[in-house]
Amino acid sequence: MRLATWNVNSIRARVDRVTAFLDRHDVDVLAIQETKCRDDQFPHLLFEAAGYQVAHVGLNQWNGVAIASRVGLEDVQVGFDGMPAWGDPAGAEARAISAVCGGVRVVSLYVPNGRSLDDPHMAYKLDWLGRLRTYAAARLVAAPDEPAVLMGDWNIAPEDEDVWSMAFYENKTHVSAPERAAFRAVLEAGFTDVVRPFTPGPGVYTYWDYTQLRFPKRQGMRIDFALGSPAFAARVSGAFIDREERKGKGASDHAPVVVDVTD
DNA sequence: ATGGTTGAATATCAA
Question: Strand B-proximal residues, CB under 7 Å?
């Protein structure tokens, strides 16, 4: 079975690229982030025509996450237990959705950006990640043998080599010690980065800013990850980052990350 | 020129 995760930066602007990607790489399950639409605006029919069931949560033009699957889509859950609320009035944002696809619990995640180190969004980001760690740890206790994968846009570059320049990111988000500790805490809860062993750095990224010619200058960040439970990680047979998807007109600023598991 | 691009409530905000 082949799974992938991709921050598409608007599903409506990108749906042709997304369905072409699914076809080209024979993807069974795609975790999608930043759909940037309400559910009634999501192009459900195009996914159905391509043979995929879709679970999507989108509340407005921001965030929005989905899972598209052609190997079943069971026990859909919006958000995760304990996911923090945000806003005034406070409410849950559309940043997490999960389902069981082909026997794997797939969680599609869009971690809050943080904006800047002293912004309230940064405290929200750290709280959100802490709650995610608690959820992930609880799942391993409740179902230690369940294949589960937390995949999406984590908005964290966990290692120095995951950014094109540590000097550039000094005092910026994505590389700060608290963010990296929050990411590491999920690993310490028992989850494993199943992609990095197949895509070693340095210079291997999943995101390049639209501005400043970052992509042709190879100035990116590795911030999209698939973290597998022990039962999932044991079945991973390969992984790659589809850098080609960042090329050309109409590309998302993120590339898809693909993971293969044995059936 | 203190930006540079893209996408979404077209007017700014978010990334």
Answer: A 9-10, 12-14, 36-37, 41, 60-63, 112-113, 115, 121, 210-212, 250
